């Protein structure tokens, strides 16, 4: 790894020293604030205030691109340093990128003119992809090029949403958001497929890691990307037995991967079992979507929320809890309260997906409470960590 000038590194405020710091902090704070704001909007407590496109359009877009986009950026801008052995984005450049993300969030929720909102929103993901791609290109690290490709497709999905917003077409906005959600699934399968078996090996003290089956990994990735394409183009919004077959690729494929990684010892390690549960939701979501395409499930929203709450938010919380410790020079031992946070988030997913058809509003409120409590616990124990230097004095 390239060496950093120690005096220059110490001159940078800790929060701007590596990508995970601002984006994990801002992203989780946004997740905590966005849900009560959505609840107040649903119950008419915000009066005439309307974000760009209305509250439903805001909620749809921001949970994927606002919350999810921040965490994806923070993780990738941190991981690329390990992948390439070169320093990651830091200092003023990192601060500028984080402030761009924040400006886009404020512009959307405050209903800024589209002439301001659209350029702010369109700039963020391409900037992240450019930084990531440039770092990988310099060392010719081709095995991580698919990450840049999926990130670029995610930016294209965001552009589709903004096009729909500009022309007042709600269908285009839905297509873009749902395409993005399945691209996030592709990214989770790609990254999770690498790190979960590795973290499991390290966490359980195994001598060998479960070897990947490249054909299985590529099948899951292709299935998720093709599902995203079906939503972007429109057919994914309509029931089709052919799309049910496509849903089985990532659904059954991720189940098989999860079974290969499983060890009963994970339930003893706080930082492991949430990763496996999140990946289980990542398998359940496309299987639920397949059931809808076959007419066995009445509402496709349940499958989408299995992906958004159980898989995306679940994997995010589990990953950032571990990554934040590792990259701040701390032992890989989560605070005891994080076990409760992980359990609450999964309970919230169960309430939103499985209990909602039975309990209605009660399940909805339970899901919202669990979500807020989980991210509040993360911020309670990690906010200071993200804003202070590494314990070992190293850069980052």
From TrEMBL:
The reply on keyword Transmembrane helix is yes
In terms of InterPro entries, this protein maps to: NnrS
Task: Give the coiled coil ranges.
Answer: none
Q: Does the keyword Cell cycle apply?
A: no
The signal peptide, as residue positions, is: none
- Top-level taxonomic group: Bacteria
Q: What are the entry keywords?
A: Membrane, Transmembrane, Transmembrane helix
Question: What are the transmembrane regions?
Answer: 23-43, 63-80, 114-133, 145-166, 178-200, 212-234, 240-259, 271-294, 306-325, 337-356, 362-383
Q: Please name the Pfam families in this protein's record.
A: NnrS
The protein here is known as NnrS family protein
* Species assigned in the record: Metapseudomonas resinovorans NBRC 106553
């Amino acid at each position: 790894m390239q060496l950093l000038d120690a005096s220059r590194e110490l001159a940078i405020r800790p929060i701007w020293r590596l990508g995970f710091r601002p984006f994990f902090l801002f992203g989780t704070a946004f997740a905590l604030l966005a849900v009560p704001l959505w609840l107040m909007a649903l119950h008419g407590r915000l009066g005439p205030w309307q974000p760009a496109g209305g509250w439903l359009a805001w909620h749809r877009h921001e949970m994927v691109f606002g919350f999810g986009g921040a965490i994806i950026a923070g993780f990738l801008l941190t991981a690329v340093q390990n992948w390439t052995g070169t320093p990651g984005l830091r200092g003023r450049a990192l601060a500028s990128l984080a402030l761009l993300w924040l400006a886009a969030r404020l512009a959307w929720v405050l209903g800024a003119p589209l002439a301001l909102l659209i350029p702010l929103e369109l700039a963020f993901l391409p900037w992240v992809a450019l930084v990531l791609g440039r770092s990988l290109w310099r060392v010719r690290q081709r095995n991580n090029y698919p990450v840049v490709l999926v990130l670029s497709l995610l930016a294209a999905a965001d552009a589709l949403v903004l096009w729909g917003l500009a022309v007042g077409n709600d269908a285009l906005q839905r297509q873009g958001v749902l395409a993005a959600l399945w691209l996030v699934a592709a990214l989770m399968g790609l990254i999770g497929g690498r790190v979960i078996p590795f973290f499991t090996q390290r966490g359980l003290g195994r001598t060998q890691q479960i070897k990947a089956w490249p054909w299985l990994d590529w099948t899951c990735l292709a299935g998720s990307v093709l599902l995203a394409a079906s939503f972007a183009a429109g057919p994914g919004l309509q029931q089709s037995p052919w799309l049910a077959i496509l849903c089985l690729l990532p659904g059954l494929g991720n189940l098989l991967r999860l079974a290969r990684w499983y060890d009963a010892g994970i339930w003893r390690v706080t930082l492991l079992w949430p990763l496996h549960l999140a990946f289980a939701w990542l398998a359940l979501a496309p299987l639920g979507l397949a059931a809808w395409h076959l007419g066995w499930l009445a509402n496709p929203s349940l499958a989408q929320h299995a992906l958004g709450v159980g898989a995306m938010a679940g994997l995010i919380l589990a990953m950032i809890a571990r990554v934040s410790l590792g990259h701040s020079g701390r032992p890989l031992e989560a605070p005891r309260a994080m076990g409760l946070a992980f359990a609450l988030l999964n309970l919230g997913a169960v309430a939103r997906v499985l209990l909602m058809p039975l309990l209605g509003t009660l399940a909805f409120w339970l899901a919202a409470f669990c979500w807020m409590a989980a991210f509040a616990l993360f911020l309670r124990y990690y906010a200071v960590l993200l804003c202070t230097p590494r314990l070992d004095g190293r850069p980052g």
